[in-house]
Amino acid sequence: MTDTHLVDGADATLIVTGKDQPGLVAAVSSLLRDVGANIFTLDQYSTDASGGRFFQRTQFFLDGFSAARARLETELDGIAREFGLSWKLTDQSVPKRVAIFASKSDHCLLDLLWRQRRGELPVTISMVIANHAELADEVRFFGVPFFHTPTVSTDHSDVEAEQLRLITGNVDFVVLARYMQIFTPEFIERAGVPIINIHHSFLPAFVGAAPYRKAKERGVKLIGATAHYITADLDEGPIIEQDVVRVSHDDTVEQLARRGADVERQVLARAVLWHAQDRVIRTENQTIVF
Amino acid sequence: MTDTHLVDGADATLIVTGKDQPGLVAAVSSLLRDVGANIFTLDQYSTDASGGRFFQRTQFFLDGFSAARARLETELDGIAREFGLSWKLTDQSVPKRVAIFASKSDHCLLDLLWRQRRGELPVTISMVIANHAELADEVRFFGVPFFHTPTVSTDHSDVEAEQLRLITGNVDFVVLARYMQIFTPEFIERAGVPIINIHHSFLPAFVGAAPYRKAKERGVKLIGATAHYITADLDEGPIIEQDVVRVSHDDTVEQLARRGADVERQVLARAVLWHAQDRVIRTENQTIVF
Amino acid sequence: MTDTHLVDGADATLIVTGKDQPGLVAAVSSLLRDVGANIFTLDQYSTDASGGRFFQRTQFFLDGFSAARARLETELDGIAREFGLSWKLTDQSVPKRVAIFASKSDHCLLDLLWRQRRGELPVTISMVIANHAELADEVRFFGVPFFHTPTVSTDHSDVEAEQLRLITGNVDFVVLARYMQIFTPEFIERAGVPIINIHHSFLPAFVGAAPYRKAKERGVKLIGATAHYITADLDEGPIIEQDVVRVSHDDTVEQLARRGADVERQVLARAVLWHAQDRVIRTENQTIVF
Amino acid sequence: MTDTHLVDGADATLIVTGKDQPGLVAAVSSLLRDVGANIFTLDQYSTDASGGRFFQRTQFFLDGFSAARARLETELDGIAREFGLSWKLTDQSVPKRVAIFASKSDHCLLDLLWRQRRGELPVTISMVIANHAELADEVRFFGVPFFHTPTVSTDHSDVEAEQLRLITGNVDFVVLARYMQIFTPEFIERAGVPIINIHHSFLPAFVGAAPYRKAKERGVKLIGATAHYITADLDEGPIIEQDVVRVSHDDTVEQLARRGADVERQVLARAVLWHAQDRVIRTENQTIVF
């Protein structure tokens, strides 16, 4: 995949996490050397000098990675047992598959579609699912399937069931591009893949609905956006990325929303890119972003 | 005052506020022309096309401003009666007098002392009042009186009474440079001058104590600081200025505090400058900053 | 035009420039009052306390502006003669017409098309002119005419003649959205309308071609973009807006270009918006942006 | 050293550079494991997938680092010979010694003195050397020796000789905190330690003298500052850090200088911190900053 390599460059990415202890870096890097890999970048972080948690992301080049993969995985299992680690190995030539959920707002959705087409996002956008029909033509212009799952009652179970049928087995993660429905905890659990949301405020300020109106009322001088993983606790999931933009007393709520839209799409695009590149590691309710 | 003029340049500043209606700008600017003033900058803002509130700040040059002031004030009273306005006229050659309250942290305090000495802040720092003694030498090195008002019990009434004796009649506003005591509503009322505080978070996120610890726990990717006027509602007063800095998963709470200190002193310095320049107009629980 | 009013709110904008002198603000605002206008915002700036140049932008509401316009213009002529001023009156309900020039890069072009459709830019995009054909479908999807004017030789005179035929009388300004041809001075003069360009560096750093390569070689830690008016001096025209983004040693030239693209489209969009709102006043080789 | 550990946390830092090849990370990390070290952070960067240059910074904990150091160095020499690498091992409990050069401007100098006293900079400020006497009291208030080396003629050789006598053997690096003299190439060579300068513009824009005046004339919308290592080519040395601040048409040259001063001191403080933490690796005319 040229596009993928445009973005990052290596053949594979290895994430290792676990209890910190001497010798972890040596064990993993020796294994990579023994299979003939050349490490391109390595980022490592421990939460404490002793007894903390250990996080490592390694990108490496390895001719014939597909052929060597099975052996590498077996050896990683061995190290994992020895040190009590978890690991995840990703073939960077295989783009992750994503379903984007949207409602009526187009700014985050179009930005993702456009960046993907441009080769900036190493993902395949498998489908767009929306509870409104307005954006169908836009999405199909990009050659992406558009599925309309309208919300017909306060009981979302039928809609969610249909959405689950569409995504199950077909996508590696989900992005909510200003999708204005709240999922049930059951949906989140049954989806079984990470779900990234963009919240239109600098969390934890202005949780819940209408953050721009609340921002105007409070008279803040900056507004922001937050990309985070969805959990059962609304607006409380692990934060991936945030940014802000300066506003002024003469911005109306509508102007705040317009300025905010620019921040939303940038923040969401960065979060999706980093997730697609396996840069983001969840730990408790936080993220490590390498 | 060379320093004052270095900062801004004009002889006087006129703030006018009231119910918006046609003819306000013309009435005020015609009056200024008639007394021989030359307008240097004029900023005007109305909250709505009709029926809103009107805010105007005008800086002007006027040879012999002191002599002309009485006449100008009489005429302003006339316009104010006619249009139902409020106004405030400030001689820019007279720096505002400020008392800075501090505790043990030196970063905001020293930054203000240093900027004032450098000619960046058009204020006279009349005194520093602290509930700890550690910063006495530092403050006096700048030639500024230092008064130690230790907190000896949970009843702050004696301390506040002494603080009121020190500032009453002597200062035009108060700045809390990371002063770690909470004033009683009575103190705020009896002080009778604006009180500017720096809060070490991006309000309304992380109100109350220990915001950097809360920020670490929530895993935010930016931390901020907020300068606001003190009201009886803790951390709820009108916001003057805010800013943020990017942080990462590997910043400890101590490192967040250190990065935050840089933002705090910049945000507070801007708020103090703008207040000293009569750029900040309070309206309900918000500010207009021209 | 709902869209226009969404953006800014007033009925008309008046720009006045000239030699600074007492009474200018009063004269203009009294005239507006006399025709029944209500001033919504007024920004004024003088380059010096005395003998400087005066710049003022006023937005106002006026029921029946079209009917009152002739009288207003006559009176403005009177004031202009008395004080030696220049003025420009703009009906905000009439969006400015723009031709966008492009080559192969789509990021700036699509961003402008999308913002205009969204109601963020108070302009009519009359046409897109490109020296390559690749973007035709994209542009026409937005319902905008696309004209292909390929460069067939080193002599651009035929191409420029055709471009002039297309735009003459049809547009109020031109935007170069990463258009990779250099106009002759004759084209600029005969076009007779402002031409806004986006340069992919923080001017005056890295003038000329291949700025991202030069930035990589110099090892800068920030890259930027600059929107400016085109003059006969390449890359030397008055700057309207600039911004930067942080980069790192591990960004390749291609990654710098990708990060830069985000800054380019934002900077250009702001410059186009401000120009369309008559916020930008040229003076010598600089701009006043209210 | 509490202060040092406050800043970063580990016992030692190891920098390794050389020609990229498989097995480098494994070799270094295995060695560290074998001596009982626990890696705290590891940053690695290669300029290319194959045949590029390799840069690695490792921070580690090692009880009894001083005792183990000799063995570690011997083994590092072995690896260095085998792979053709260079390495540098730093004891983080020993702060680097710095001489700060100044002239009349106090902002960068005081900021460094104050940050060091606060425990934000893991350095010992051994002396301040100035060609003007004005800042002597300020410096000595911090308990730091102040040496006055006035420039008495256009021939700087006597002054530079005295400066070399002061610093030789006494400091590990030099910081020019708005020192307004240009060193001869001989001084730079004979000093034999890194020299960090702060340039008051966003290099390569506005090289040479009076950058704020040039910025005003060009009408830029952002001004910046650049910290870089000094080489014989004035303003052309490797850039460590840069930042910018937004300015406006109504900023005078003096106001640009004042706004710029805030950026200068922040950029210089970051560059000094990162250099002191061995985060900055020079390669050709660029820097890697981990």
Provide the descriptors you would attach to this structure in a database record.
Rossmann fold; alpha/beta; globular; disordered N terminus; homotetramer; four-stranded antiparallel sheet; seven-stranded mixed sheet; 290 residues
Structural description of this entry:
Four copies of one chain form a homotetramer. Chain A has 290 residues and is of the alpha/beta class. Chain A folds into two domains: 10-91, ACT domain (Alpha-Beta Plaits, 2-Layer Sandwich); 96-289, 3-Layer(aba) Sandwich (Rossmann fold). In chain A, 36% of the residues lie in helices and 29% in strands. The first copy, chain A, is built from nine helices and 13 strands. In chain A, strands 7-6-5-8-9-10-11 form a seven-stranded mixed β-sheet. A four-stranded antiparallel β-sheet of chain A has the order 2-3-1-4, with helices on one face. A two-stranded antiparallel ribbon of chain A has the order 12-13. In chain A, strand 2 (38-46) and strand 3 form a beta hairpin. The model of chain A is unreliable at 1-7 (pLDDT under 50).
Task: Give a summary of the structure in a few sentences.
Four copies of one chain form a homotetramer. Chain A is 36% helix and 29% strand.
What is the CATH third-level topology name of the largest domain in chain A?
Rossmann fold
The beta-strand count of chain A equals: 13
Strand order of the largest sheet of chain A: 7-6-5-8-9-10-11
Multimerization state? homotetramer
Strand content of chain A: 25-35%
